[in-house]
Amino acid sequence: MKKHILGGAICLFIGVLSYNNSQAQFTLGAQLRTRTELRDGQGSPLSLGTKPAIFTSQRSRLSAGFTGYRFKLGLTVQDVRVWGQDVSTINRTTTADNNGFMLQEAWAEIMLLDTTVKNKSLNLKIGRQELNYDDGRLLGNLNWLQQGRRHDAALIKYESNSWMLHLGAAFNQNKENAAGTIYNATPPGNYTATTNGGTQYKSLEFLYLGKKLAKGNISFLFLADQFNKFHTDSVNGAAVKTWDEGVYNRATTGLFFNNQFDKLGVTASAYYQFGSNASGQTISGELLSACFQYAVCKSFSAGAGVDYTTGGLSSSGRTSKAFDPLYGSPHAFWGLMDYFYAANGFGNKGLQDYYIKTKLKAGPRFQMTLDGHEFFSSSYIPGGVTRRFGTEADLVGTYAMSKVISFEAGYSHFWNTASLTAPSVKNITNAQSNSNWAYLMITLKPELLLK
């Protein structure tokens, strides 16, 4: 697989060099990003006496783009691994658990309107691609994770000076079947890329309508995703999933607003989710969010906000009120320690997040942010404990040595309550009450443009 992808990249490169068209444009880029982390309760608090983890992960990417008359091509290959994952004489990247080499992007975009039409475009984009809309809360590329997120999809894009209408669709299968379309929704390696509990969607469709404002945008999203139905059998006393014909349908719709009013930036969103989740349970969930950021001076800004997602069950106990934030980038919103809506669940309780954010720009190359979060459950926690989950503080500093080289360091601390580690939430016995996380990330990202 690795040889085939590299061979395809080389063939593409040779083909581009031999393409003799004055309108052609070729871009070549690379990225090497290493991140050393100290995890002492990142994701979930550790039990008392448990030692913290230290490791270095690395993302290595090679990307190429080619633009010609009425078309664009994009290709990104990447290798993601932890230092020492492979011993020095045996390569294990072909195993299910250590498949770090992958195709991040491989897409073509066709201009359906002639390029002489300057103020309107109608394009068809097909292939493996990132979907990143608005603030990335529901559809984002999850760039923080070394492996990122991508979709195998088709996308029709109509855009004018102030409006954009995107229609997207995806349909997943495990292989070239001779009959039927049953989809095994748990990929090899069980990479939990979404909050669907490691369950990948079988199909997805969305409509995105956006309008540019003076210094921002307003948009409407309707997204439907389907999950393969299943039933559970008991094999030797263990529950085993068997995939069946048919799908569970889920839909999410809502509005997003973002604009800058002089020194005040305002962002707000509201979404409603209904249908059935990946487990076949009827759902009725909501997400509400609002925040502001005020520029005190050219180098310093501060703001505050609140996020609210519903959770728990309805009064009848038959409907889940747990909102699922789909395929976004939770690391950017609900605390850098990823306690909520990331790989580690918290019992579908819903979340109230009250936060303050500050940003200091000490010159054109250095930036520092300091954020504080106060987390509460949106639903009742059995046992009579408080709904308060705890407090988190996040400190991040970035330094751009040049356009190619940048350094980033961060430290986070979480003061948790017994509610967070309760059996119905994270279910951790004898948990420590203070958790820490620190990292140092170095990124090199050179780019080359040829015409």
UniProtKB/TrEMBL annotation:
InterPro entries referenced in this protein's UniProt entry, alphabetically: Alginate_export_dom
One Pfam family here: Alginate_exp
Domain Alginate export, first and last residues per copy: 26-339
Source species, domain of life: Bacteria
Protein name, per record: Alginate export domain-containing protein
Organism: Chitinophaga oryziterrae
